[in-house]
Amino acid sequence: MDRSDSISRRVAVQRGFGAMATVVMFWGAGSKALAAGNKLPKPAVQYTDSGAQKGMDCDDCIQFVPGKTPKDMGTCKIVVGDINPHGHCLAFSPKPKA
Ligand code: SF4
Asked: Quick one: pLDDT band at residue 78, thresholds 50, 70, 90?
């Protein structure tokens, strides 16, 4: 292992902790928003209409409320507005496995 591998690993670990801290922060914010009867705006959780990772779309998230059909837009318990079943955001929380 050379010095550049060590630096790359350090950067990856720092980014991982940064991403986890962001999710925890927004999860906490989401809980407060729910307690106040409000939802988070999409930009606050970096919502996107198309998720980049299989199995991490909105329809795989415990917060997703489906539309009339699996292809219809749904809603989210903590994010405001119409939610694409194939969207994604930082507050993604996987559904429990059946
Ligand atoms: Fe809501 Fe985000 Fe989960 Fe999508 S990924 S359902 S926007 S919490």
From this structure: very high
